[in-house]
Amino acid sequence: LNEKYTIMIPGPGAGGPPARPLAMNLDLWHWRADALIKERRKDKVTLGVRILRHCISRDPLDPRAWLILANYEITAKNITGARWLLDEGVRNCRRSVDVHVAAGRFAQRFDKDYRKAVDLFKRASEIDPKATLPVLELANLQFNLRNYDSARRVLLGALQLDARHGRAYEMLGRLERERGQPAEAVRWFTEGTRVDSDNIALWQGLALAHEALGHVDEARDVMRQATSMPSFSNNSWLYQTWGSLESRHGDPVRAEQLFDRALKLDPTRGAAWHSWAKLCEQLGEYGRARMLYSHGVEAIPANQLLWLSWGELEASLGDNDKARSLYSSALSRNPRGPKSAQLWCSLGKLEGAVGNATRARECFATSRQVAYRAVDQALCTLAWAQFEAAMRNPPKARQLFEEALTAQRSLKSIWESYALFEELLGNVGRAIELRQRATSALRRDADSPANSLALQWLKTRGDTTVVDPQQEPIGTLLDQAGDFFRKLLTPPSAKPGGASGTTVNLMAGEMGPQQQQHQQQPFYPAVPLSPPQQVVRQRARQRRARRASREVRMMAEYVRTRSQQQTPTAQEKNTQSCSN
């Protein structure tokens, strides 16, 4: 090859180096280096990296070596090295769309430099105006930032470039579903399955959109049609999604069959292990749930969600030592994973519940440091503020509430928790002011399509049944351990002998008769329950009642102990009166 296929490569431009001979065997060298690195053996990887460096020295204008080396460094957790390689690749390969797109993804994911990512995607589009990849990446960035109008315009432009691009239809369907328009989502997903029937995400999105509309039978038909296709008949992702759908709509037997099918096809499908275990928890089969969590973490040790859910199960059953061990095991295996903030926060709540206040504060502080997104940091700060409120430390709690609002002002739960905290301290005027600030802040966010939740809340005004989708990254952060502080912070007006008959909780404001009547109306169209669904719902209500009664007993014991520790003696009272 070196003798027969040597060609002349032109220089970069006028005044640059002259044309130089280059052997055509670089294609073979790139292929060989990529294969060596994928073997994941130390000697093979070292040889592959040496070959790629040789390719860069022979032709720095070829983008393949830069991209392969950068991907290897990202896999090896060498973020600094990957950043340098991508920057050098952009500088040398100025006409490469792939290098610019890869650098934009890196800036978006690791550097959080969204302005740089947008600039790189736009430059990639200028290099090749007919390329759809940079356009879709730009739309995905706008979608993640909740700039839905901008993302929609970009996606419609991508469809003008390629009307048969399945990913554009899929992103448009997801966008409409996030904006609360499931009917529009069904239209886009249906059109996408017609032009690109091999895109599995389109079939899954279509089923979920039908479910959001309340058309459960249509969703089942979509999943049945997708799994009957030869290309998807052995796809564990579809079976896991179908099983989750059946578990949500009262057919646990069918759901378990589908989860079992998904795990036989792919034992490393963490979502299937998690969904199956959660189904067993709903049915009250805690032993089976433990077994599934155990098998799941054995198959996928780095899956933090399985460790977290297992720890929450043990904590809800009163085995705090086991829960602490599970949280610690998850953090030791993957200290910077996507659920690290939630793990540290749950560990802090656990330590606070057993009386280890110092350790709890350390865990809360660590959870804020490792939080991946601003909403994660805000919710961890909120949990810490609730803990300080429970420990009767108003100055620190007030400071943490303000920090949580600085991190994420569009979370209704932060505003309501802060307002109720001030109300407990007797600062009624301050509580009213906070609720007014919350209304104005959420209305400003509602004017922009970046926050559809705020718009929904302002439309329903007082409907506390609407769940904030931005709380999903933290999962059950405020569900189980948060109940501990919710009961402690119940204001006097919410008690049976209070001044008014309204009910107040930590996550919602006061509700009058009209608001209570509106709260009973379902947010989505009601779906009639089958007998298996009714059994599942009844067992879930019984479980919640048992858990609430257990937590009330724990709360009473905790408050009684704290009050005994803080009750002053007669001598202390005399000293205090003299000092006054």
Automatic annotation (TrEMBL):
InterPro entries: HAT, HAT_Syf1_CNRKL1_C, Mbb1-like, TPR-like_helical_dom_sf, TPR_rpt. TPR repeats lie at residues 236-269, 304-337. GO terms for molecular function: mRNA binding. Residues 561-580 have a biased composition (Polar residues). Keywords: Nucleus, Repeat, TPR repeat. Residues 215-369 form the Pre-mRNA-splicing factor Syf1/CRNKL1-like C-terminal HAT-repeats domain. Residues 526-580 are annotated as: Disordered. The keyword Cell cycle does not apply. Residues 538-547 have a biased composition (Basic residues). The keyword Transit peptide does not apply. GO terms for biological process: mRNA processing. It is found in: Nucleus. GO terms for cellular component: nucleus. This is Pre-mRNA-splicing factor Syf1/CRNKL1-like C-terminal HAT-repeats domain-containing protein.
